[in-house]
Structure formats: C-alpha cells, structure tokens
C-alpha cells in the first residue's frame, strides 16, 4: 500500500496532495473525444483494414447526448507537488473514464462517487477519490453547438434508416458496453425516447458532468468521500457555507496531516467533522474499502474463488456498470492477499481507450464498465483460457479450467460466514461459480428482470433492512414501466406531484448521506465497517500464518552480500520448494504447488532474503512477527503436516484496537479558517461550483505546525516508518533489480495513460513480446534444471529437487504461457483456446490440400528409426495425427482441455518445438489470423521461442501418460527371436501380458498368422512376431510376461527380446530375454517375467544422450542369467568384494525407493528383479564357490541346492531330528518348506531361475529371508555343492549379509501381480 516518494520534510504530513476539478472547458467548446477516434483506429487495425483510412471526425450515428466529449482538468491545487508530480492525462482519464456526458432535465442526474488508483513503475500507488455531479450549462455557444450536433444526427439517422447494420465482433461488443455515457441510472429515462435522445435548446435545460477529486497517498476512502460529498452539498445548498470553499480546500491540502501509525485523526468538513484512523506497526496495513460490500456483491464462496485465482496470478476481469463497485472488489481482493502483493498489471477501472489492453498476454486484474443490460454472451474477450470473469452486478463468476481449490475451503467459508453473520450480514449472496467447461456458462437476463443501478442499490438497502419489501415492489414496477415513467415526467413538467411515488423516492434519498444526516449514526456505522473489515482480513491473514508458519526453514540464503545476490538473482535457487511441499499436508499440495511458482511468492521470498541487509519490508515485518507469536504459543508444532483447520484467534483483539482509536481521537487538525483572499472573487451561486482563487491555494503555509510538532524522536520515528511503509521509492540498486531480475509485469503495473498514440500502443505490444520471450526462456530453463536435478539423484549425485506434483505444475504453467502467446494479437477470436483454434484452421487447410492432391492423408514426416530394430515398423511424425488422437478422447470436453492435452502429448513425444514450427510455417494462415504486432509474427522472437522449446527435448516427460490415465491406448508388441539360430521359429502358441505402473493388459494370445519377415541393411531376412492390442493406459511399462503352451514339433523357442510401443506417445520399451522357453532346455521354463527399459530414439546424438533422462533399470543381461554352466565358463566372474558391494547397492536402492514421496517411487519390481537388483545380487552370492557345474551331464541351478536343502529339512522333521531345536527355528524351517512347496506346485512353468527369483521376492516381502539363510547353511547338502571358500560358508560374510537384509524390515514391500500370479500361500 505504499504511496509515493517523500521529496521534502512536509511529505509525510500531508493528508491530500491535490484537489482537482475536471469538466468542460467553455473556451475550447465541445471537442469530440480523441479516445473515440483512437478506438476507431484500433478497430480498423483489428479488422485488417489500413488504420490510416479509418473515417476521421465525429460519429453522427449516435445522439449527441449519448456521445462522449473531451473533458479537461479545469483546475488543480497546488500546481505541483515535488514528491508526487501531477500526471494530468492520467488523472483526467480516470476522473472521467468516458469523458464528458450531457443530460437534460428529463434525465436522472444523481451524483456519483468512484475512486481510482495510479500505479507507478516501481509499484507505488497514488489514490484518487472522485465525486461526479451535473451542473447546468450556461454557455450559449455550448448549447448552440449541442443543438447543431443534434440536427446533424437527425439528418444522419434519416439517411441511414435503409442501410443499418451492426457488427458483432469481439472488440465491437466490448466497445458497445462503453458507448453510452456513464449512466448507471439511465434505464428509466431510456424509455422516454424524446427525453433521452433529443435536445431542443429553446425547450430543454442542458447539464454537463463535472468532477471534484482528491489525490491522496493513502486510501482513506470514507474520509475523502464524506469531504467531497459535503463540498457538493455546500454548492447546491440554498444558503452559503460558513466559510468560502477555499478555506476548506486549503485546510485539507495543507493543514490536515496524515494520522501517525496507530493513531486516529479528526478534521473538519464543511458541515460536520470527519474521523479517520491508521493501523499501528504490528497491525494489518490500511485498507478502507468496505469488504462487506465486496462479500455482499459476490457471495462468500465466489469471493474466495476469485481470491484463489488472484493468488495463482490468473487473468481476472471484473465487470460492472458501477465504477465504485469495480474499485471496491479489486481493492478488497488485493487487500486480502496480505502478506503477499499483486505484482502484475492492475487497472481496477479500464478507460474506454485502453480496451486493447485486454489483449495483454500477462496476468492482470482489470475492471471493465458494462452498459445497462449488456448480454454477457455477446461480450467476447481476446483470451479466455486462463481468465476468471467476475460479473459483479449479476453476482456470478466464471472460473478457468483445472482450478485448484484453496486449502480447507469449506471450513474457511464457514468461518468467514460466521464473522459476517455476527455483524448481521447475510453471506448467501452470489450465484454459484461456473467453470468454462459447463455448457451454459453465459446467461442472458430477460429485459423485465434487468434492474437499473439505482434499483440494485435499493435492493442492497433492502438487505440491510432500510426499505420494506412492499415499497421495493412498487418502486420496481415504476422503474420498469415506460407508461408510468412518461406519466410521471408529464406530471413533473405540469407541476403536479404524485405523492406516493415522490414519498417513496424521497424515502430512499433521505437515507443518511456523507454530507448530512445523523452524525452519531454515521460514526457508529464507520466503526462497525472498520471492525468488520479488520476481522475479515484477520481470517485471511490467519490462513497464511498457518500455511507458511515454517517458510523460513526453506529459504535458501546463498549470497554473502546484497550486491552479489542482486547480480546473480536469476541463477539462484532461493526457496527449497520440493522440501517445503513434502512437509505439507496432502490436501494442500494442488494449491501450494501452483502458488509457490507465482511472482508474488517469489517477490515475498526475495524481500525476506533482502531483509538481512536492508530494513524489513513492512508487510513482511508484520507477518514474521505474527509467526513468531504463534510459535511462542506453540500453535504450529503439534499440527505440523496436519490439514486440520485452525480458526483465527485474534478477532476480538484486532477489532478492539480499532474501536479504541475511533472512540478516543488522538489528534484533531486545525479548523478551517478565513484566508487572506481578494474580496469579490469566487462569488457564490447556488448549483454552480465557483472558480477558486489560485493564488491562495497554490502555496501552503511557510511553517507547517504538524511538521514542527513532529520534531520529537517519537514523531521522527513514526514519520520514518510511515515513509518506508507507504511512501518511499526503492533505491537505484533495488530499482535495477526490480526492472531486470524479476519477470514481466513489474514494469507494466498499469498502462501508460499520458500518451495513447498508435506508436505508444505498438511499443507496449513490443514490451509484451519481449516479456513473453523472457518468460518462455525462464520457464523452459526451470523445467530443465528441475528435471536434470532429479536425474542427477538417479545417477547418484545430490538430492532430489522436483516432485511429480511440481513437474505437473510447471507443465501447466507452460500450457498457460503458450495459450497467452497464441492469444496475443489475434485478429478475430474463435473459441476459448486460441492455440486449438489455430490448430483446427491448420488441420482443415491440410486436409483440404490432401483431398485436392488425392492423397489419403496430409503430408507426414518420416520419424527417425528406432535403435532396436528393423523389426519395429517406424512410427510416423504427424501433427495432424496427434490432433486426431486428442480429438478421439471423449474424456476431454473443451477446447482449452484439448489444447493442453495436445501440448502434453507433443512434449512427451519430444515434438513440441517441431510441431509448432510446422504450424507456424504456414505463413499465409498466420497472417490471416494475427495482427502485425502479434508475437507469432515477430520472426526473430518466434525463432528464439521455438529454440527454447527445443531444449526441452533433452529430458523425458511422461506428462501425457501420467495425466490421462483412463484412455484406451493401442500397444504394438513385437517378439524377436535370436536371429542367428534356426530355432527362431516356434510351432507353439505364444502369449504375452504387459504390465505398467497403472495396471496390466491381461493375458493376450498372439495369433499364429502374425509372423512377419523384415530385411536389414544387408538384405538378410529376419522373422519376428508382431501384434497390436488395445487396452486402458498402463502408464510407464515395467514388466512383460512371455510364455507359450509348448505345442507342436518346434516347441522350444530362443527369444532375444520383446519390444512394446505405445502407438500414441511413441514410447518404445525393450524387454531383454536371451533365454530359452521350452521343456528340457535351459531351466525348463515355459514362461518368463522380463523387466523393461525405455529405448532411445536412434536419431539422438551423443550430446543429447549425455544430458538426457537416465534409462530405467534393465532386465538381467543374457550372459548373467544363463545357467551355471555358461557362468563358470565366462571371464566375468565377480570376486567376493564386488558381490558384497552389489548386494549393498541393491538394498540401498530399495531403501531410497521408500524414502521418496509415494507418487515418485517408480517400479519396485525393477529394484527387486532387474539388472543390479536384489535377486541378481543374491544369485551372484549363491553362485560364488559353486562346485562342478555338471553332475552326470545335467545342468545344476541354485534352485536345485534349495530343493535338496528343503528335502533334508522335511526328512529331518519326519525323523524327529528337529526336536532339539528351538521353537523359532522350527517355525522358520516350516515357513521355508511351505514357501518352497507353494512355488514348486504352481501351475506356472516359470523355470528354476524364475522359482529362485520368486522365493527371494516373497522372502523379502514377508521379512523371512534373513531367517532362511542360516537354515540353508546348516544343511549337510552345502558340503557337497559348495567349495570351502564359498561366501555362503563364511560365517562373518553370512552375518553381514543377514544384517544388511534385515534393514529392509522397516518397509512394506508390495510385489507386482505379474510376479506372484498363481502362488497360493
């Protein structure tokens, strides 16, 4: 809430910096609003016409009473303030966002109040408070000009009656909402066709709008509103005010100080005193806009949803007829963000001339004024994929898709509702939120249901019990009935009064206003509002205090000094996101993972780091103090990792602080007094604001008493704190940091209002282009660094730094960025997703070209061939084909969803950059769809953008496979026999079962007619079996079960490997085998479980391999898993140290697996049965020191040793030899025999090696493995089958192995169904 820089000693003392009057300049006369001409220029540009040929001059199609004319700043006091230079164009535009508007006596001319905000480039703010009223036009020239314009309009209407047509394009509909003058109350008079649209100078009195404005450094909204209302009351009162108006203006500009922090202040308006108060250093910052009104307008749930959108930095567009409502909701939401601050474009009231700013491809919070009765469905906005649309007047919102909910939302809403009810306010206002996926996301209101703003305000009063229901019904009937309105207008002109109606209206108008009425009642109402405001804000602040109670533990302080930190800001990792998320309750993660990626969170952490070298930022100071206090009372510790809702405990305390200040005023300002003025000037005339004396108001007192008083140490301290809290600009270094080191949005907080030439608009768009490119670079870099960090862990270096949730958040953020890039500079918007719309145009064009060329499919590029094989037919690369995959997915209902799915699929296939390059290569289509300044038509930036996306090919993403888990996917399976042997063919009936992280395919019988023959580069023939089957997404593939039924003459089958490819994503897995399947050969297995590895596309060069995702664990290589015979004959036998190291590493990998977050663990089967797995390491252990490999020419396996050992135990048990052993030993013996027999009796023909693998896996799962080993060693069989030097016979080695295996007892091992199928224990 910082204001502006204090350039002099007096700066902190001033309540208001400027008093401004805007209106019509009678000397220059009626000038058409140049902003309307600019709008026509923009429209011509949008429609692809040459903007320079757009018709110049005035628009005579509209009645002059409905048109806008140029307003001017008629006077400002003082001329300039050193610490806050006056921005004339901005103030004029925001005081009268639609220029001057004219009325006649037949129209309603109720005064209006609204506020505005000017955000400077450094993020500091200045507030404006505006009271607009209508003043009679006395200049004959103006009346005559209006008469002439009306006659020209009449002539134009006569000529154009035959050829009237209207365009309904997006910006036209936006413009239509701003065509009429600012008249929220004009519905009743619009029915009076003559009165509303016509003007006759001889018969009608002409009125024009005039605005009184106070510019202040802090948002004292209530005080300014009351002061301006009293000022207007003095102008229209029959008696002159007690003092000349100059006395009151002088007083508020020069003699009313800002209240010191934690103090209250009373100063004097024209008729009654005005009180304001300012929070102390430990309290929430000043916020004077009524939150109760924001909650009443939207409803609690809707407001919480909009608040969540704001936290996640989405695009938020507020929509209302009433400027003050726009400001109230915008300021209300940003106030609730404490301790965070909105970092992007913030324009609560968007002037008509800045409509093109809705095209901004950045997060924004903007307010757009709607026209009475505008149908929301006709309001087409440049981009809606990530937009939260807030229709304030209809109490409804539309939310973006894929929207995470705020943590503990239900309990949070309940607590807010209770606070509102305690103040007598119903919390049930507001329609339920709509997401864009719902078919009826826009609703048009029938004419009879529409109400004017006056009526809505009356309804609001009705909610508070100020207007009886019956009276409201009567008034509603009046407002909506054209005949009654005409009758009433007629009675007015003839001097007759309609008593009942006038009494009703008078009853409404006599509600206490700021300037008049019951002073005590007003003060009570103000106190009540202030207490409600602070209590609602405390509930929100309490949520953040709970959620981020331990945030300091995760801040990374990595730089020795401020300068080096600022210099290396972009390269530095400031917050340990992965550790923070792992410490949070599961339900909070969807929201928090998105939120910690936002600019506002990054800025908050930056401020925290900078606070070690500089004075702590005020909001951060308050927040940290609250966390320390909570820690002192031990609120957080017991609930760590708990999602239990904690209610705010300081509601009473916070309300009492405000009540104490408002009930006991700390300071009273100097009373307004007579000034040294020239007599006779500024003569009072009822209904007209006088011309004030400039000489008196342009210079303040030479010695300001308040500043003089403030020389004490306490005053100096207060003033310094106030300066740093609300008024200081950042120093040069911090400014440089903000401009360069932070992302776009920091230097585009608000569009430049001073100069709106086409050149400036082009420059703004160029800033957007540069910002989008920078954002793309930062996002792709972050995605790469985080992904690489994870892979470094898998390769054995460092700690993990990304979780699946975090990765998903980054990819969602990339989808949002691409949508914003494709929305920038669109000619005509079609559909909610600009990217999908472009893709559909491309698809239609390519398919049309393909039909003309008589080719069955559009041009498709050849994919690089896969490493593994000639056997796997190459998958073709096709942008259109990928689109068809997405279009066939019935799970996705919206265009935005389809675009996101297509991005995820392209990213997973490493084709995102290539596809987008192909899409943009059709330049004629791009030119047709986009304006000249669009990002996609800036060649150099576009190339850099595609290059950044290309860098993402260095890592593997499974962002499509892991998200769309229920879709049906075709898989191609190819079984490749050993090529060099004649036994490559089999007469048996093979089958496969493919398993992945999400499930398995079930057993798929492979028909015999799928035998294929391919030729390699030397034209040597190769046969293989290939089949395609379709099943629900299996996720990342882990295992393949391969078997056959041993039928026919050639039943033995030597298989090299099995290849499986996902036909949508193109991911290919290789499952090495290198073993026989068949009775009487190898270990007699008819079925094997194979472990998969992801295959590298062969087109990737060495550099890509060096920095890419590491491969999954592999199946054991054929050399190691062939029988003992071949092992004893190989040179690769491992020594005992290597075997022990292998066992230690295998066990360590399993322990690491369980220490990862559950969703990040990957496949345990790989660690149990793959290469370098537990089974492989124990096989090596059992093979060490094995005696002669062949006994009577029969191959011996480890399972044979286990079989003999179990047979000995069973016979010993029968003979009673185990009687002397302990009960525990007996039970262990029985368990080993039981497991052995269960495995041996299974109907599966898994072979001896397969059985040993199963025994190890079951033993590890049931924590029995360390108990079985001593039994095996104690069997006499070991003497026959193992040498003396065998590791199994060495007691110390065995004890070490047992202790290592016992470390697995802390974890619950679950075995994949493919491993334990058919085992009955």
UniProtKB/TrEMBL annotation:
CDD domains, sorted: PLAT_RAB6IP1
Cellular location(s): Membrane
Biased composition (Basic and acidic residues): 447-463
Highest taxon in the source lineage: Eukaryota
Chain residue ranges for the region called Disordered: 156-197, 427-464, 1101-1121
Signal peptide start-end: none
Ranges where the UDENN domain occurs: 53-615
Domain annotation RUN: ranges: 805-965, 1165-1316
Domain (PLAT): residue spans on this chain: 969-1091
Sorted UniProt keywords: Guanine-nucleotide releasing factor, Membrane, Repeat
Primary location recorded for the protein, binned into one broad class: membrane
Segments of skewed composition (Polar residues): 1112-1121
A single cellular component GO annotation: membrane
Record's compositionally biased regions (Low complexity): 162-197, 432-446
Pfam families according to UniProt: dDENN (PF03455), DENN (PF02141), PLAT (PF01477), RUN (PF02759), uDENN (PF03456)
An MF annotation (GO) of this entry: guanyl-nucleotide exchange factor activity
Family per record: Belongs to the RAB6IP1 family.
Cross-referenced PANTHER family: DENN DOMAIN-CONTAINING PROTEIN 5B, PINSTRIPE, ISOFORM A
Protein's UniProt name: DENN/MADD domain containing 5B
Lineage: Eukaryota, Metazoa, Chordata, Craniata, Vertebrata
């Amino acid at each position: 809430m910082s204001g502006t820089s204090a350039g002099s000693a007096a700066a902190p003392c001033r309540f208001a910096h400027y008093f401004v009057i805007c209106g019509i300049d009678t000397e220059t006369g009626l000038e058409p609003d140049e902003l309307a001409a600019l709008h026509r220029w923009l429209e011509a540009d949008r429609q692809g016409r040459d903007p320079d040929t757009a018709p110049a001059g005035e628009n005579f199609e509209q009645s002059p009473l409905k048109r806008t004319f140029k307003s001017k700043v008629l006077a400002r006091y003082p001329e300039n303030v050193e610490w806050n230079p006056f921005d004339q164009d901005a103030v004029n535009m925001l005081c009268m966002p639609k220029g001057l508007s004219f009325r006649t006596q037949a129209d309603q001319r109720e005064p209006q109040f609204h506020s505005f905000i000017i955000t400077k480039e450094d993020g500091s703010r200045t507030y404006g408070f505006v009271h607009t009223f209508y003043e009679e036009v006395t200049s004959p020239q103006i009346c005559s000009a209006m008469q002439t314009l009306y006659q020209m309009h009449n002539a134009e209407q006569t000529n154009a009656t035959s050829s009237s047509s209207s365009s309904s394009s997006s910006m036209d509909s936006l413009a239509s909402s701003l065509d009429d003058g600012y008249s929220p109350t004009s519905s009743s008079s619009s029915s009076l066709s003559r009165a509303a649209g016509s003007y006759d100078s001889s018969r009608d009195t002409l009125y024009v709008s005039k605005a009184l404005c106070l510019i202040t450094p802090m948002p004292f909204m209530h005080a300014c509103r009351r002061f301006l209302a009293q000022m207007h009351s003095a102008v229209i009162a029959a008696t002159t005010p007690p003092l000349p108006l100059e006395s009151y203006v002088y007083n508020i500009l020069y003699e009313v100080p800002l209240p010191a922090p934690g103090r209250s202040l009373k100063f004097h308006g024209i008729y009654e005193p005005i009180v304001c108060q300012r929070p102390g250093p430990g309290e929430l910052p000043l916020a004077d806009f009524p939150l109760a009104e924001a909650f009443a307008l939207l409803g609690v749930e809707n407001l919480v949803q909009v608040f969540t959108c704001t936290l996640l930095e989405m695009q938020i567009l507020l929509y209302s007829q009433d400027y003050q409502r726009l400001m109230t909701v915008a300021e209300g939401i940003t106030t609730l963000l404490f301790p965070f601050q909105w970092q992007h474009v913030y324009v609560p009231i968007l002037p008509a001339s800045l409509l093109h700013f809705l095209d901004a491809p950045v997060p924004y919070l903007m307010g757009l004024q709607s026209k009475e009765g505008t149908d929301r469905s006709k309001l087409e906005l440049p981009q809606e994929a990530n937009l939260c649309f807030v229709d304030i007047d209809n109490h409804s919102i539309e939310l973006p898709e894929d929207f995470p909910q705020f943590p503990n939302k239900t309990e949070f809403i309940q607590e807010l509702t209770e606070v509102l009810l305690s103040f007598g306010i119903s919390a049930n206002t507001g329609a339920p939120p709509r997401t864009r996926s719902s078919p009826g996301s826009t609703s048009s209101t029938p004419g009879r249901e529409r109400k004017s703003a006056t009526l809505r305000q009356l309804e609001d009063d009705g909610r508070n019990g100020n207007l009886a229901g019956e009276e409201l019904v009567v008034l509603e009937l009046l407002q909506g009935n054209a005949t009654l309105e005409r009758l009433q207008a007629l009675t007015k002109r003839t001097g007759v009064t309609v008593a009942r109606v006038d009494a009703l209206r008078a009853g409404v108008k006599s509600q206490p206003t700021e300037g008049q009425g019951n002073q005590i009642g007003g003060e009570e109402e103000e106190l009540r509002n202030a207490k409600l405001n602070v209590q609602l804000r405390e509930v929100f602040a309490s949520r953040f205090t709970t959620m981020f109670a331990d945030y300091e533990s995760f801040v990374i302080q990595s730089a020795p000094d401020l300068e080096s930190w600022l210099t290396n800001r972009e390269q530095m990792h400031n917050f340990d996101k992965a550790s923070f998320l792992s410490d949070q309750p599961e339900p909070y993660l969807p929201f928090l993972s998105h939120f910690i990626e936002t600019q506002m969170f990054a800025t908050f952490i930056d401020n925290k780091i900078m606070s070690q070298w500089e004075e702590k930022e005020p909001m951060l100071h308050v927040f940290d103090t609250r966390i320390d206090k909570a820690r002192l009372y031990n609120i957080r510790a017991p609930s760590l990792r708990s999602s239990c809702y904690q209610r705010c405990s300081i509601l009473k305390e916070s309300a009492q602080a405000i009540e104490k200040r408002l009930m006991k005023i700390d300071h009273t300002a100097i009373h307004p007094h007579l000034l040294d003025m020239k007599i006779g000037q500024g003569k009072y005339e009822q209904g007209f604001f006088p011309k004030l004396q400039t000489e008196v108001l342009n210079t303040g007192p030479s010695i300001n008493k308040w500043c003089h008083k403030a020389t004490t140490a306490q005053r100096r301290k207060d003033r310094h704190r106030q300066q740093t809290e609300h008024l200081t600009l950042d120093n040069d270094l911090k400014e440089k940091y903000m401009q360069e080191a932070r992302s776009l949005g920091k230097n585009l907080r608000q569009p430049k209002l001073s100069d709106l030439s086409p050149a400036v608009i082009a420059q703004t768009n160029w800033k957007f282009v540069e910002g989008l490119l920078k954002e793309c670079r930062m996002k792709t870099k972050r995605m790469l660094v985080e992904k690489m960090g994870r892979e470094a862990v898998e390769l054995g270096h460092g700690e993990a730094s990304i979780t699946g949730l975090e990765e998903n958040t980054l990819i969602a953020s990339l989808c949002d960025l691409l949508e914003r890039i494709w929305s920038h500079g669109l000619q005509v918007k079609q559909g909610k997703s600009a990217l999908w719309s472009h893709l559909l145009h491309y698809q239609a064009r390519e398919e049309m070209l393909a039909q003309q060329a008589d080719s069955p499919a559009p041009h498709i590029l050849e994919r690089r061939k896969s490493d593994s094989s000639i056997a796997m037919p190459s998958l073709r690369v096709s942008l259109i084909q990928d689109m068809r995959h997405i279009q066939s997915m019935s799970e996705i209902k919206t265009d935005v969803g389809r675009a996101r799915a297509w991005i995820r699929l392209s990213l997973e296939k490493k084709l995102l950059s290539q596809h987008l390059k192909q899409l943009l290569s059709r330049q004629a289509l791009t030119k047709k769809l986009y304006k000249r300044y669009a990002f996609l038509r800036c060649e150099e930036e576009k190339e850099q953008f595609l290059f950044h996306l290309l860098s993402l090919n260095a890592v593997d993403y499974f962002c499509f496979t892991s998200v769309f888990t229920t879709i049906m996917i075709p898989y191609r399976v190819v079984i490749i026999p050993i090529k060099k042997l004649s036994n490559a063919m089999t007469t048996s009936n093979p089958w496969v079962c493919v398993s992945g992280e999400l499930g398995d395919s079930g057993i798929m019988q492979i028909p015999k007619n799928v035998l294929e023959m391919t030729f390699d580069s030397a034209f040597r023939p190769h046969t293989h079996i290939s089949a395609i089957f379709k099943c629900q997404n299996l996720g990342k593939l882990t295992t393949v079960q391969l078997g056959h039924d041993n039928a026919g003459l050639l039943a033995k089958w030597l298989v090299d490997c099995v290849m499986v490819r996902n036909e949508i994503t193109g991911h290919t897995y290789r499952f090495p085998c290198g073993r026989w399947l068949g009775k009487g050969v190898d270990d007699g297995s008819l079925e094997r479980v194979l472990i998969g590895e992801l295959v590298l596309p062969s087109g990737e060069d060495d550099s890509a391999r060096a920095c890419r995702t590491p491969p999954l664990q592999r199946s054991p290589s054929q050399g190691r898993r062939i029988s003992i015979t071949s092992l004893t004959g190989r040179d690769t036998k491992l020594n005992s140290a290597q075997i022990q190291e292998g066992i230690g590493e295998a066990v360590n990998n399993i322990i690491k697996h369980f220490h990862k977050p559950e969703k990040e663990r990957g496949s345990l089967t790989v660690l149990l049965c793959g290469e370098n797995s537990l089974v492989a390491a124990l096989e090596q252990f059992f093979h060490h020191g094995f005696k002669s490999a062949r006994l009577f020419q029969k191959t011996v396996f480890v399972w044979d040793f286990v079989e003999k050992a179990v047979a000995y135990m069973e016979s010993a048990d029968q003979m009673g030899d185990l009687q002397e052993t302990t009960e525990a030993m007996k039970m262990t013996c029985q368990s080993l025999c039981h497991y052995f027999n269960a495995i041996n009796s299974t109907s599966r023909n898994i072979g001896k090696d397969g059985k040993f693998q199963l025994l190890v896996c079951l033993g590890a799962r049931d924590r029995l493995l360390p108990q079985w080993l001593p039994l095996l060693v104690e069997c006499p069989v070991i003497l026959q089958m193992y040498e003396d030097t065998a590791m199994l016979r060495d007691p110390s080695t065995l004890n070490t192995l047992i202790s290592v295996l016992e470390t697995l007892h802390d974890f619950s091992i679950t075995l994949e169904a493919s491993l334990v199928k058919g085992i009955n224990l």
